[in-house]
From TrEMBL:
Keywords: Glycoprotein, Signal
Protein name according to UniProt: COBRA-like protein
Keyword Glycoprotein: yes
One Pfam family matching this protein: COBRA
GO cellular component terms listed in the entry, alphabetical order: plasma membrane
Protein family per UniProt: Belongs to the COBRA family.
InterPro entries: COBRA_pln
GO terms classed as biological process: cellulose microfibril organization; plant-type cell wall cellulose biosynthetic process
PROSITE patterns xrefs: PROKAR_LIPOPROTEIN (PS51257)
Leader peptide range in chain numbering: 1-24
Length: 206
């Protein structure tokens, strides 16, 4: 009788803790959203602006900052980046003459430091990966060997967002309504060609 009773207590405790952890992952809306806006097509791919928004009220990403990685759907390469850099070039031996910045299947990108020359910056870049609550961090990426239309470009998948002593879990890449931008004279709106969103949620501190 006594062991049945403690069994019930343990079951209750287990279901309680399951409830609270799934609660933390779902109904709490706090997240880091990565938005991938395709801005223009190029002869072999596209230029995108990638932005990470910190939608967490209390949690900052401290120095030495965030890292972002993903897996390409095919054999895409990174021709160039503005406002961030890749950590690894990988095997670009297929390329002669013009050599991509990165040919790895799973590139990792880090922010640039404050004080980066102005011609290597984009808006919201270059904070050494520090990302305070309610702020955003952006970089521009030129992707090659990618599709050159919205029926052939493939979404990057398996996103990972990492931060010092923080573990995040990212969901799938979603094709969403293209972002609308207002021109600086506020007269016109333009639109991204395609927009992909990835939502990452804080999982635990390490
Ligand atoms: C991410 O957080 C923002 C701000 O709280 C919220 O509006 C948005 O719905 C969240 N996204 C998801 C997928 O939960
Ligand atoms: C496909 O791209 C064209 C322009 O390149 C755009 O006008 C159209 O809305 C896009 N379609 C979708 C489904 O995103
Ligand atoms: C995609 O992310 C952006 C930036 O957080 C947000 O404004 C937009 O509503 C998101 N789209 C969808 C469909 O969640």
């Amino acid at each position: 009788m006594k062991s049945l009773f403690s069994g019930i207590i343990i079951l209750l405790l287990v279901s309680f803790s399951c409830f609270t952890s799934s609660e933390a992952l779902t109904s709490n809306n706090e997240n880091i959203t990565i938005k991938w806006d395709l801005m223009t097509w190029t002869p072999d791919g596209y230029v995108a602006v990638v932005t990470a928004y910190n939608y967490q009220k209390q949690r900052s990403i401290p120095s030495p900052g965030w890292k972002m990685s993903w897996r390409w759907a095919r054999q895409e390469v990174i021709w160039s980046m503005v406002g961030a850099k890749t950590t690894e070039q990988g095997d670009c031996s297929k390329y002669k003459g013009n050599i991509p910045k990165s040919c790895v299947r799973k590139p990792t990108v880090v922010d640039l430091l404050p004080g980066t020359p102005y011609n290597q910056q984009v808006a919201n870049c270059c904070k050494g990966g520090v990302l305070k609550p309610d702020l955003a961090s952006s970089f521009q990426i030129t992707v090659g060997a990618a599709g050159t239309s919205n029926s052939t470009a493939r979404m990057a998948v398996n996103f990972m967002f990492t931060a010092p002593k923080q573990v995040y879990i990212c969901g799938p890449t979603k094709n969403v309504m293209p972002t609308k931008f207002i021109t600086s004279d506020r007269r016109r709106t333009t639109s991204a060609l395609m927009t992909w969103n990835i939502t990452c949620v804080f999982y635990k501190a390490t």
